[in-house]
Inverse folding.
């Protein structure tokens, strides 16, 4: 994990935008089918991704990569509900 100063949860709540919700997207992989292949897709079709199941997933806020992690089943939730365990926080200060 990168060494970063992470604000205390109380400080984050008091920050001007600390309580503004942000949508986070988790990317598990990409596929590059042709348009013809997409048009042939039907229920139960399999679209192969460019990653294996044990590779880290990427977490985005908007279009900015903010972290990486591993998928796991959430505890105490509905069976089969997914969660992400963060394994790396990106260096946002040096990101483009």
């Amino acid at each position: 994990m990168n060494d970063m100063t992470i604000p205390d949860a109380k400080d984050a709540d008091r920050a001007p935008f600390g309580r503004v919700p942000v949508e986070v997207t988790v990317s598990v992989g990409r596929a590059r089918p042709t348009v013809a292949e997409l048009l042939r897709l039907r229920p139960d079709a399999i679209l192969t991704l460019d990653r294996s199941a044990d590779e880290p997933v990427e977490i985005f806020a908007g279009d900015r990569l903010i972290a990486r992690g591993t998928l796991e089943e959430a505890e105490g939730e509905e069976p089969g509900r997914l969660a992400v365990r963060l394994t790396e926080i990106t260096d946002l200060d040096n990101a483009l």
Q: What stands out?
A: Helices lie at 9-14, 35-39. The mean pLDDT is 86. The chain has one domain: 22-94. The first strand starts at residue 24 and ends at 27.
